[in-house]
Specification:
Layout: H1 3-12, H2 21-34, E1 38-41, E2 47-52, E3 57-63, E4 74-75, E5 78-79, E6 82-84, E7 87-89, H3 93-109, E8 130-136, H4 144-151, E9 158-161, E10 176-180, E11 182-191, H5 206-218, E12 224-227, E13 230-233, E14 235-243, E15 253-262, E16 278-286, E17 289-290, H6 294-306, E18 314-317, H7 322-328, E19 332-335, E20 350-352, H8 353-367
Parallel strand pairs: 3-8, 3-9, 9-19, 10-18
Antiparallel strand pairs: 1-2, 2-8, 4-5, 6-7, 7-20, 10-17, 11-15, 11-16, 12-13, 14-15
Helix pairs in contact: 1-3, 3-8, 6-8
Length: 372
């Protein structure tokens, strides 16, 4: 069993769907015992470790919270972790304790941290930089930990966020995501005037007003953008509607839930639904991500290419991650990790053991400034 697999097993066995304290404590103790890094755990549970100089910095970023396990993923109060068919099964294997374990081992074992930004040295020197490991809390509830860390000054120059990027260009290939969508959830509320349903002209039907707003949304195109030649296509759709109080009462209110998948720099013009008696409120806005440094993206792609027999590509990813918050704060980000589409948040969640070791090699390759 490789060191990454063994560490993944230990992390996955620690419940962390409603309290990340024990998992964060495990990561903090491991970093203290296995590395000479400066390790901190902040007041909400984020674990951050730093090695090297105060110069340009490269961060490996993950999170140690998970969504609640399905019934078959828990035995009494213990998480079930099973290895079979070359994969590790259990809640958090794919999203994303496997990537956290790979990053922890790479952080420990990397000797010469460099970034693309420090490659061009006129005297050929091998510039030391700061290597950072960060595992956040609260990613599954909107990036609570990442936002807190950013507010407290977490600002590496470059970051590899270990969310899934395997299997996008081809099955089994670990790609490099240079952009992903964000998510804006919002509510439209239509107000009317209640009346007896037998006299509809005596009131104002809120559902009819909401229906006009729904028609407006149906006519909108989703936002779109291009990042390094890759298209990112968003969407906007109505997902819930609720209104009325009884079959014989003209409804005085109706609410409509809207899900928009945003893209870097573009949003659907949802404010068009606003009119007399119709309001629109944003409930949650998870930012999209776009890498702003093609040289760094190519460096990670080169490391990925050197770590596998397949041909990795620069790709885009449909899901929001903490990379969105980091990119919004000015951090140059890519997403590169072992999880494959369809694994996260499922009752059959699992991760390939070979790909875990591959990600360890990729992270080390980037940290050393070149291919593996």
């Amino acid at each position: 069993m490789s060191a990454v697999t063994e560490l993944t097993r230990e992390l996955v066995a620690i419940p962390s769907h409603d309290d990340e304290t024990e998992a964060g404590g495990f990561i903090e103790r491991w970093l203290h015992s296995e590395t000479d890094a400066a390790v901190t755990r902040d007041e909400i549970g984020n674990v951050i470790a730093r090695r090297g100089s105060d110069g340009e910095s490269l961060a490996f970023v993950g999170h140690h919270d998970v969504v609640p396990p399905d019934d078959e993923q828990i035995d009494e109060d213990e998480y079930v972790v099973e290895e079979r068919d070359g994969r590790l099964h259990g809640r958090g294997t794919a999203d994303m304790k496997g990537a956290v374990a790979a990053a922890m081992c790479a952080f420990r074992d990397s000797e010469v941290p460099r970034t693309s930004k420090s490659r061009a040295q006129p005297d050929g020197a091998n510039p030391a930089i700061e290597l950072v490991f960060a595992s956040f809390v609260g990613e599954e509830i909107g990036g609570e930990g990442a936002r807190h860390a950013i507010d407290q000054g977490f600002a590496p120059d470059c970051a590899i966020v270990g969310e899934g990027s395997t299997g996008y260009s081809a099955a089994g290939v670990t790609d490099v995501a240079i952009a992903h969508k964000g998510r804006r959830a919002s509510t439209i509320t239509a107000r009317g005037t209640a009346a007896h349903a037998s006299e509809p002209e005596a009131g104002e039907n809120a559902i009819y007003r909401a229906g006009e707003a729904v028609d407006t949304i149906r006519g909108l195109d989703g936002p779109s953008a291009e990042v390094f030649g890759e298209d990112v296509e968003g969407s906007v759709v109505v997902t819930e509607i609720e209104g009325g109080s009884a079959w014989n009462v003209l409804p005085e209110s109706c609410s409509v839930t809207v899900d928009e998948r945003t893209v870097p720099g573009e949003r659907a013009p949802l404010s068009r639904v606003e009119s007399e008696g119709v309001g629109w409120v944003v409930d949650q806005d998870l930012p999209p991500m776009a890498c702003d440094d093609q040289t760094f993206a190519r460096q990670v792609l080169s490391a990925a290419d050197g770590a596998q027999s397949g041909d990795p590509e620069l790709v885009t990813k449909p899901h929001a991650t903490d990379a969105g918050w980091l990119a919004e704060a000015g951090v140059t980000c890519v997403v590169c990790g072992p999880a494959e589409p369809g694994e996260a948040h499922t009752s059959a969640e699992s991760v390939s053991l070979d790909v875990l070791d591959r990600c360890y090699d990729i992270y080390r390759g980037v940290a050393s400034g070149g291919e593996n």
